[in-house]
Amino acid sequence: MSIIQEVPKAMKHKGNQGFTLIELLVAMVIASIVMAAVVSAYQLQVRGKNTQEVLTDMNQTARAALEIMIHEIQTAGCDPLRTADAGVLIADAGEFSFVMDIGDGASFQPDGAADDPNERVRYALYTDGTGSQNLGRATGTAADGSGGTLQPLARNVDALDFVYLDEDGNITAAVDEIRSIQLTVVARSGRESGGLLHSFTDATAYQNQQGDEILAAQNDSFRRLLLTTTINCYNLNN
């Protein structure tokens, strides 16, 4: 006689029952948490990349411009033949213009006249057609050093400051007494901190080496970089 054992209804077709509603809800919650973590990590990575690009561009551009200015200002007044009337033309807090005899454009040898390209140089800030304030460099032949159109040496510069010192290190306003120059530049990032790694408000008041304020606190979300140096004008000692 065969024995037939009846399977309880609760145990029938267990493998085909699928997930319960509670199990589905738990799975959805876990998946949502994982996706939120992935999205957050991605956004953090993008913000970090944007921040690095903005700060690197500001830093490299400002430092490159400063190096060019240092090199040229050190050559201000270069006049080996003593006939070019080289020296300082304009020495204001926000503008510096000078003459040097460095080459005739062909042999790159002093020719006794300061009428060749790049022998009359002027630095100043200017605003371009987009409303951006830039550090500009101009070359021209005007006797007062004002000739030539300013071309961008560094974009997004909020402050440019010159302090002129005599041979004893005292501040002077006389162009024939200048022996060194304290140069200070405040560069600004090309975009505000929105979309960057951290929110930011710039409440810093920027000063030159003398402790004088050259840029008041802007209280905005732009990043800024202050660079300052002292340039010895060796050719102005003659």
Automatic annotation (TrEMBL):
PROSITE patterns: PROKAR_NTER_METHYL
Alphabetical keyword list: Membrane, Transmembrane, Transmembrane helix
Identification of the protein by name: Prepilin-type N-terminal cleavage/methylation domain-containing protein
One Pfam family in the UniProt entry: N_methyl
Residue stretches spanning the membrane: 21-42
NCBIfam families assigned to the protein according to its UniProt record, in alphabetical order: IV_pilin_GFxxxE (TIGR02532)
Top-level taxonomic group: Bacteria
